[in-house]
Each structure stands twice: as C-alpha cells, then as structure tokens.
Specification:
Two copies of one chain form a homodimer. The first copy, chain A, has 143 residues and is α+β, with helices and mostly antiparallel strands. Chain A has a single domain (11-135), classed as Pnp Oxidase, Chain A (Roll), CATH 2.30.110.10. Chain A contains three helices and eight strands; from the N terminus they run βαββββαββαβ. Chain A has helices at residues 16-24, 61-68, 99-107; strands at residues 11-14, 28-35, 38-45, 47-49, 52-57, 71-79, 83-95, 120-135. In chain A, strands 1, 2, 3, 4, 5, 6, 7 and 8 form an eight-stranded antiparallel beta sheet that branches. In chain A, a hairpin with a 2-residue loop joins β4 and β5 (52-57). Chain A is globular and about 50 Å long. The A-B interface holds A 10-11, 28, 30, 32-34, 37-43, 56, 69, 71-75, 77, 79, 84, 86, 88, 90, 111-119, 134, 136, 139-140, 142-143 and B 10-11, 28, 30, 32-34, 37-43, 56, 69, 71-75, 77, 79, 84, 86, 88, 90, 111-119, 134, 136, 138-140, 142-143.
C-alpha cells in the first residue's frame, strides 16, 4: 500500500478502505473494555470478514467484560524503524450464538494466543474506524 | 531473558520484575482510557523510570481523557513467529507539573509518534502489573 504524505506532513490520515485493508493483513491487536469505569486491555489475535472483527476467547474476564459492557475500542498497528501505522476501531461487541455466525468467524482463520478447549466467539461491529500512517524522523524539537 | 515454561504449559505468568524488565526494553505501547463509559485506545511511545511509565503528548483528546478519568490501562507486547509476551499495567495517570518531574520524564528518552511543539508529559503510576509469555504451536483443536 502506498502512503502519500503531503510534503512536510509526517502524519497521514487514512481512509476507511485503507484502514480495513491494513486490518485484513494483520492478525494481532488489542481490545480495550470498560466495565463500571474500570478500563482494561487485552492482547489478542483477530480475523476480519466483511468489515467485522472476529475474536475467539475462553470464558472469563475478557468475555465477561464484553458481555457486561459491549462498547469497545480495538487497535492494531505495524511499526518499522522509520514508519508506522495504527488503526483504531470503535464499536460494539457481541458473542456469537449461531453455528452460521461461528462458521464465518472460523473462516477468518484466527487462532487464539492461549490454547482453549472451550470456544467462544465474539464479533466487533465497527461504528467508527480511523487510521493513521506516520513517518518518523525529522521531528521538531520540543521546548 | 529466559522464560522457563513448565512442561506442556504454553502460557507462563511473569513476575513483576520480569514484566518491568520487558517494558524497560520496549518503546511502543497502547494506552486505554474510559471517559463516561466511552473506552478509547491510543498507540504511543513511552519510557520507564523507577517502575513508572512516562508518555509525552499534545493537548487534545488523549490528554483530556487522562485528566477527566485518571484510571488507565496500558499494554505493550512483543510478538515473534513462535513466541510472544504481553505486559498489562493498571494504574492512574497524572500530568506532570514541575520541571523536576519533567526532567525525569525526558531522561527516559521517549519520543512521540506525532511531532508536537507543545510538550505535555503524563506519568502512569502502576497499581498492578501482569505479564505473560506465550509459546505458540501445539494448540489444542477446538470443538
């Protein structure tokens, strides 16, 4: 993907299409949840299908956080020595219930970090996506 | 750092010392905030000194989120093809006010992703740190 920064602009706002394209080629992200004002963050692998994010999880803290308060934020990024990108999705999380939905989720090829016998699937439906691409280097000195 | 997993245990809980050591050798993380139930997540560079996390930011959304609701979660990770680690810190965020504090923050060598002329420093004082190390590979099939 080409990132055409305007001259002297180290930060480029990405289009939703560019942002989804980056997510579709990434497998690792972080999910942020807030339950009763207690914010938490979970690293996880994910899959993307039809602009929806799929994650597999075991019953527990993360799944409970999603069930109690379904508004979440999700982030993935890619960092090289001289450039980086980051995509943030805001949306709602919902546990998958039907076999048809779970088939779609499985087809994204996501595998969890933590081996889990008990399989729970959650999808994140995006209400907003934003992405930025950064060129490192000539940063102004701070005073 | 050596990660001594018990036989057949793909996940290893790290000690606080191991977790801080990983953070001290990492420059990129993500900060999760919750304001009025609206969870958000920000990629950023950070520094560590005396088991405190320092970030530099411009006035705006992120700084406002920290000021309104100072309980935050912070995550950093490292991912290789066959192993990964992740460290999560829960704590409180506070904007630095004194030049003495800002000197400590500057000395950590953190540089922001987004060039910023106006310099605001925030520190995250940890109330809890947890780290895990994962060995990928032989994961049980899910049913």
């Amino acid at each position: 993907m080409m990132f055409d920064h305007d001259a002297d602009k180290p930060v480029l706002d990405l289009t939703p299409e560019q942002s989804w394209n980056l997510l579709e080629h990434t497998s690792h992200g972080r999910l942020a949840t807030a339950v009763g004002g207690a914010v938490d963050i979970f690293p996880l692998n994910f899959g993307v299908s039809e602009r929806t994010i799929y994650i597999r999880t075991a019953p527990g803290e993360k799944l409970a956080a999603l069930t109690v308060h379904d508004t979440v934020a999700f982030e993935a990024d890619g960092i090289l020595s001289d450039e980086a990108w980051s995509v943030v999705v805001h949306g709602t999380a919902r546990q998958l219930q039907t076999e048809a939905e779970i088939e779609i989720a499985r087809a994204t090829g996501v595998s969890p970090w933590t081996p889990t016998q008990k399989e729970s699937w959650v999808k994140i439906e995006a209400t907003n996506i934003s992405g930025r691409h950064f060129i490192f280097g000539a940063q102004p000195e701070s005073f």
